[in-house]
Structures are given as C-alpha cells and as structure tokens.
Amino acid sequence: MRRLCSVAAALLLVLGLMAGPAAGITNGEPDGDEHPHVGLLIFDIDGVPAWRCSGTLLSPTVMLTAGHCTFGTDGGRVWFDPEVVDPDYPFASDDSVEFDEIHTHPDYDDDAFFLHDVGVVILAEPVDADRFGTLAEVGVLDRLAVRRGVQAQQFTPVGYGLQSVVPDLRADLVRYQATVGLVDVRGTAGIPAGTSVMFTNNPGQRNTGGTCFGDSGGPVFMQDTDVIVAVTSFGLNANCVGVGGGYRVDTTDDQSFITAFLD
Length: 263
What we know:
7% of the residues lie in helices and 32% in strands. It has helices at 67-70, 140-146, 252-259, and strands at 5-6, 29-30, 38-45, 48-57, 62-65, 75-79, 97-104, 119-123, 134-135, 154-159, 176-177, 180-184, 196-200, 219-222, 227-235, 243-248.
C-alpha cells in the first residue's frame, strides 16, 4: 500500500453494496439536497465496474474529479441521488448517466498521483441542475494560509465515501458533508508545495469530521459557496484520521486543463 493512501483506489466496489447505519463522511452529516451537483461516480475497466469516486458538475455535461479516479478507466456512470438505492447499481440504469469521455491530466503519473491528481468526465447527456461548481481564484489558498486569522476559514468537503473504517466499516451510498479547517499548503510526506492542501480530518474546534475512501474527486468547497478550492485526493493513514489531503485546483496549470472542457 502506498505511504499516501489515494482515497479511492483502495475502495473495492463491493464495499458500496454493504448495508449499515449511516454515520458520516467521517463524523459528518447527510448532505440531503444541499449539494445536488455532487455525484457518485462508478468507473469501469474493460467494461467492468472497478471503483467508486465522487465528483462535481461544472456544467450540465462536465464533471470534475480526481486523476487517480479517471486514470486507466474506459467508461462509467454517475448518480446524483442523496442516497443511491438503485437496484441496478453499480451498472447502468434509468437513474444513472453514462460517461461519454474520460480525461486525466496529461502529466498524471500513477506512481506520483498527488502531483497532477485531477480528471474530467464528459457525460453522454446533460444533467438538469440548477447550480454548478465553480473554480476558486488562482492562488486563493496561498493567500489564506499566510493572512493572520483568515487561515481559520472553514471548508466543506462533500462525497459518497466511507463513513467509518474502525471500529466498524460503514460504506453507505449516501452523500455526506463535513466542515474542516485549513492546516497547511506547504506540502507533506514528500509532496512538494503548490500541489496539495491539508485539511483537518478529526471532529473538534468547529470541525465536524473529514474525508475517507470513496470521497476521492469530491469537491472541497469554500464553506457555504459553490467555489471549489480542491478535490479530495489522499490521506496519511488507512483509518481516515489526522489530516486529509486535497489536490489544489486554484492553480494556473490545472485551471487551464479543466476549463478547456468548458469552452
């Protein structure tokens, strides 16, 4: 297992079929209809469902997610229900929307996924959503990290990942949200500055939890907005505690890649 745990690839699809009481994104709360533009994505390899991730609509047909979710896949589909109860899941149904195209950042390297961990999915048909995610201003996280007092800014990760690893494994197909605080943008565990952002991943001090396996690719919003500063990317341990890592999308390089699909 990698020293850094990509927050999706280790999640076997069978976990998404397990039943159990809802608990949290980890210690979060059900999102309900608060973020209807965040979906549960299933990616196929050779036409077979392989893993699940989360993602955000940027337009009726363009979804933002993580590069380690899109890399090496050849199809898939997405659901936008607050709780996915589709009996055909993880296969196509009237409740899901198929992927038409899958794109991974051209410099993505699966052996160093955290350097260019962004992907885009083009849907085969438009989704009738009343709101969409937007990209943060370039460099906003750097400015927040150095301004005294502003680093206490809260963020909202949203996703369909595991609600708990220990003491009980919980993997309900429910969209959850949490409230997290900014820890650092200077890199960690060998990740250079400028690509990642670390957020609190434990409840306390106004935080309600953090991210876990399956939340990969899901948005980290500026709290109470649709502005995306990062996509959930990795954790530093297999129990989804401590801190959680996001891949920054407030950079010129990544915004050039993403917005090319929005023209």
